[in-house]
Amino acid sequence: MNTDALTFDYIWDGVLTMLLYLAASFVLFFIGKIAYQLFHKGTKVSDELVEKDNFAFSVAYVGYFIGLLLAIGAAVMGDSYGLWVDLMDIGVYGLLTILLLNISIILNDKLILRKFSVKKEILEDRNVGTGVIEGANAVATGLIVMGAVHGEGYDYSIGGPIVTAIIYWAIGQLLLFVTSLVYNAIVPYDIHEEIEKDNVAAGIGMAGALIAIANLIRYALMHDFDSWIVTLEDVGLDVGIGLLFLPLARFLTDKILLPGQKLTDEIVNQEKPNMGAALVEAFAYIGGSVLITWAL
To answer: What is the largest CA-CA distance in the chain?
Structure first.
């Protein structure tokens, strides 16, 4: 048999598979856009993006699609069980992710940013700090769903992989809320008050903490499922380490990454909050979470 012909057929099959994966993903992005509009009645996406040039909305909206992309990637990265089975998995988990992402945004509004109207802050006040946190919450949810979908093995006694993934997501949302409480406790200012004052820097720092903890949840959930006890122990250990690391990362940012400056002064105690300093803080959290996953 002609080796060149076999090579060509192999390459063509790979290209065709890639194109089908991309097509399925773009279909999900389109469905995600429609779902976002349905969950945000009264919000005209095109007007906010194009007519009003609302950057706060753009940040939140892009975060939503990054979260969706991460979750779709989990279905693509797993072991292949045949093209059509893989496409079915992408479709099922993609639709599930779209639903969970939109519910997460509602929970973010009611729990994490519960002290003011998120819709008003983003659409009327164009508060970029609020948009950053809402976008980060969507990215964090995408990471959590990514971990839930990618892990092998499920508890079929409670309904199989879909139900297991939803339970993982619910645990993740609870832990993100806990993270917001811990973060507000370690910073010497009221995070809600600062964000409501359009302090983008304060929003960036908190966004980094949410994504960092979500990355640790993702890592714990990507292990093969043995039992709920083992899973909860893994998640508890990784998140516990992450939460303990947050104040350390903030201290190291002060002493190493921002020598000679006080992080709190840069973020809240000057006329124009320093978004660059806040970005360094967010990097410290996220970078630390990556290092922790490498070390565990």
So the answer is: 75
Structure-token pair, residue 20: 């089908």
CB-side exposure of 251: number of CA atoms within 13 Å?
Answer: 6
Predicted pLDDT at 148: 82
Contact 92, 173 (CB under 8 A): no
Residue 45: CB atoms within 10 A of its CB come to: 14
Backbone angles phi, psi at 168, to 5 degrees: -55, -45
pLDDT band (50, 70, 90) for residue 97: confident
What is the rounded distance in angstroms from the CA atom of residue 104 to the CA atom of residue 170? 9
Asked if residues 104 and 138 have their Cβ atoms less than 8 Å apart, the reply is yes
Residue 116 — left, alpha, or beta (φ > 0 → left; ψ -120 to 50 → alpha)?
beta
Residue with tokens 């122990």: 233
d(CA 135, CA 217): 18
The long-range contacts involving 115-119, CB below 8 angstroms and separated by at least 24 positions, are 115/192, 115/196, 116/192, 116/195, 116/196, 119/43
pTM of whole model > 0.85?
Answer: yes
Amino acid (one-letter) located at 158 = I
Distance of alpha carbon 129 from alpha carbon 208, whole angstroms: 12
Reply yes or no on whether the pLDDT at 219 is more than 60: yes
pLDDT tens readout for residues 153-208: 555 566 567 888 888 899 999 999 999 999 999 999 999 999 999 999 999 999 99
- Give the lowest-confidence range in 37-46, 224-233, 275-284, 287-296: 224-233
Are 195 and 270 spatial neighbours (Cβ–Cβ below 8 Å)? no
